[in-house]
Amino acid sequence: MDAAKLKTETITLNVGPQHPSTHGVFHMILTLEGETIVDLEPVVGYLHRNHEKLGEGFTYLQYCPYPSRLDYICGMTNEHAYALAVEKLAGLQVPERAEYIRTIMAELNRMVNHIVSIGFLLNDLGAFFTPVLYCLKQREKVLDLFEMASGSRMMFNYIRYGGVARDLPEGFISAAQEVVGSFPGFVDELEQLLTENEIFVARTKGIGILPPDVAVDYSCTGPLLRGSGVPYDIRRVDSYSIYSRFDFDVVTRPNGDVFDRYMVRIEEIRQSTRIVEQALGELPEGPVMAELPRTFRPPAGDAYGRIEAPKGELGFYLVSDGGDKPYRLKVRSPSFINLGALPVMARGYKVPDLVAILGSIDITLGEVDR
User: 111: Cβ–Cβ under 8 A, 6 or more apart, which residues?
Assistant: First the structure.
């Protein structure tokens, strides 16, 4: 019989909302021909926490602990984005020392995010817990630094509008230099284990290709966009904070597949190491918090503060009516925006490839469902 005349039906397969590879309650409705994905519908909303509306019920200061709860891996960078938005709204000038401390914390957080992302990608690909525990062991060294500065290992409440909550404790700089000095060797060893590993390469090269024009059309940012060859980094585009003072490269890769997104994260760890080393060496003396009124009421108006968070562009849009609480608070989260390109990356690939593709986007569900 002529194969072209055979009548076939597609299969609908539900992945999640409870599934180990989604790292949270995320639902994918797959349309399959055999094991080939012909369509994918992402379904979010299972974890909705009313985050933005809650923010409109708090004073500007009371909301400061909440950004770190959007993405529990990236608390420092989340706090940085909110602080920038409030400072734009109120016209605040941040002290020099505080700017350096913020940059140090943000880049340490980027390093943490990327090693955790790589570790869990390997876990999703079936490498069990050994690689992720190897990455988490390195992460613990940075969390020790965060605990020294803020008193917490995850939900920091450290970077605040006007500066940072407190100055660096005694011994922090030497401890940070030691930790940062250990990262080049760690990354080299990680690459030795993975980059030419034939199983890892077979599961990631040529898989989940995202063309650069499609990445731009879907408003993708972060390693997902730069892994498709687009050299867009808000640290360079906006030069927010004091990033214009540091020497670092914007990392891109040309192929837009899972492997290239992994390589972007590897190289960005190296670049973050360069930034932190420079910031630690140039750290000035001085205050770490601007002088603020006892009752903080920004003038009526609106402002958008954005940063190059580890996962992409994280922005806070604030509207003030002159009161002590935001009239409107809106979060532009990279996990949610980048997830929109998942159907494009998944079409034409097999069901087992989907786990690698989703892992290479690097999402946190708390940031997706705000």
Answer: 142, 183, 269, 272, 273, 276
